[in-house]
Specification:
The protein is mainly alpha-helical. It has four domains: 2-47 and 68-92; 94-172, Tetratricopeptide repeat domain (Serine Threonine Protein Phosphatase 5, Tetratricopeptide repeat), CATH 1.25.40; 173-232; 254-308, Serine Threonine Protein Phosphatase 5, Tetratricopeptide repeat. It contains 14 helices and no strands. Helix 2 packs antiparallel against helix 3. The chain is elongated and about 110 Å long.
């Protein structure tokens, strides 16, 4: 157990839990070293007198009293050496650990820069690199939640914020997780109504959810909810209202790719092919792997739309 505690103490970043266990052993080592020294001195014979029970010194022998027993000297030296090594290990700076700690922050910062530029794939890769160094790094999970939110994937966003809450400071992410549990579940329920083709009923549900999100300061969900409102209006043939919804989203959150794609659908439905192509291109610029926007753009160009 003592060896295990010492290994933990010299290698861990947080050493306080084991310090109380190691201090008594260090004190014992000091006392034992002092005892060994006193014993070595006590055993040293007086000059000119042989040690008790020893033979008289011969002329070829080392003068009496010139050395202490070799085993005792070795034990004293070993004890002092162990204390010196222990002191060096416990007070050294772990350069590798320090470098890795800063590196995880570097990846997080680079990911944040990509995120601010709208490059979600690169941002996501940087945040995962940060977690590869430290799988308990809560800010990286929080940033992945933001990436998922911008992609319109609220379930993934809720999952990442749960991980951030698991590894973050106590209570730091509780409020965000509770709100995800509440509004996101309601959002999924209303989306099921939309998928059944009950667009008017779904429209009312999404509008109520938007009011709740604004009342609870859930600005992060306003783009998703507004997009769903716009889709309901689009499905109901209310293209002007749908266009207003999508424009409102793009003004507030220009990196929300679904708004660019869906306003393109509105343009296409109203015979504005050139504007539709520009909208689809904007969606692809935000996410080059956006398959639906790529397919819509390919279809329009194959039909010769947008050409003079």
């Amino acid at each position: 157990p003592l060896v295990t505690c010492l290994l933990f103490f010299v290698s861990a970043e947080y050493r306080l839990p084991v310090a109380l266990f190691t201090i008594p052993f260090a004190a014992f080592a000091l006392v034992a070293a002092g005892t060994l020294i006193r014993q070595a001195i006590a055993r040293k014979p007086a000059p000119g007198k042989p040690a008790p029970g020893s033979r008289a010194p011969a002329t070829s022998r080392v003068p009496a009293g010139s050395r202490a027993p070799s085993a005792t000297r070795a034990r004293v030296a070993l004890a002092f050496l162990a204390l010196i090594v222990f002191a060096w290990f416990t007070n050294r700076t772990d350069r590798l650990l320090e470098a890795q700690t800063w590196k995880r922050v570097d990846y997080l910062n680079f990911g944040t820069l990509y995120l601010n530029r709208g490059d979600l794939d690169e941002a996501e890769a940087m945040f995962h690199q940060s977690l590869a160094i430290d799988p308990r790094f809560a800010p990286a999970y929080e940033s992945l939640s933001e990436v998922a939110r911008r992609r319109g994937n609220d379930q993934a966003a809720a999952r990442w914020i749960t991980k951030a809450r698991e590894f973050g400071a106590a209570g730091q992410y509780d409020r965000g997780r509770a709100q995800y549990d509440d509004i996101t579940e309601a959002l999924i329920a209303v989306a099921a109504i939309y998928n059944e083709g009950r667009f008017e009923e779904a429209l009312v549900g999404f509008q109520k959810l938007r009011t709740r999100a604004m009342a609870t300061e859930r600005a992060d969900l306003l783009s998703t909810i507004g997009n769903n409102v716009g889709l309901c209006l689009y499905k109901m043939g209310r293209y002007a209202n749908a266009e207003d919804e999508f424009r409102m989203i793009m003004d507030r959150d220009p990196y929300y790719k679904k708004a660019h794609y869906n306003i393109g659908r509105v343009f296409e439905a109203t015979g504005r092919a050139g504007e539709a192509i520009a909208a689809y291109e904007s969606a692809l610029a935000l996410d080059p792997g956006y398959a639906m926007a790529e397919e819509a753009l390919r279809r329009l160009r194959a039909d010769g739309a947008g050409e003079p």
